[in-house]
Sequence to fold (147 residues):
Amino acid sequence: MIKTALRITTLAAALLAPVTFAMRGENEPAADRRGHLAGMMTRITMADGTSRSARLEGVGCSVSICSRTVITGKTGNEALVKTWLDSIATIRVTTASDALFLLKDGTARRLSLVKDFRVLYLADRLGGTERLDLAQVKSVEFSPDTK
Fold:
C-alpha cells in the first residue's frame, strides 16, 4: 500500500515538474513578449565600486522571476509603467525605493521599484541563477548590441 502511494506521488511529481519549470517567469502573455529580447548581457557595478559582467535572466521578487522581458515600476503619480528590458541602456542611482532608467532612445525616467520587480536574476557560471536586489547595485549597463 505504501509502495503504491509512493509510486503515484513520484510519478505525479515527475509529470508536473517540467510544466512547473516551463511556466516559471513567463507571466507576461506571449503576444506582449513578441520581438523583445531576454537573456541580455549586462555590466553590473556594485555599491562598493566592484563590477562584473553577467547575463540577465529576468527580474522578480526574492522568491521567483516575474518577467524575462519587462520591468514594472511606479511613476511619481503612482501609475504602473512597464519598461522593456531590451529598451534600457542603463539603470543608475538605485536606492532601496527607486532607480533612474536611461533608455536607448535617449529618454530617462525615475521609477519607484515595486515589490515584484526589485530583484535581478543573473545566470551564474554553474548554469543556475543568482539573485541580486537592485538596492545593492550602483548601476546596470545593458550591452548596446541587444536591439
Remarks:
- Residues 53 and 81 are 27 Å apart (CA to CA).
- Residues 2-23 form the longest helix (22 residues).
- The radius of gyration is 18 Å.
- The first strand starts at residue 40 and ends at 46.
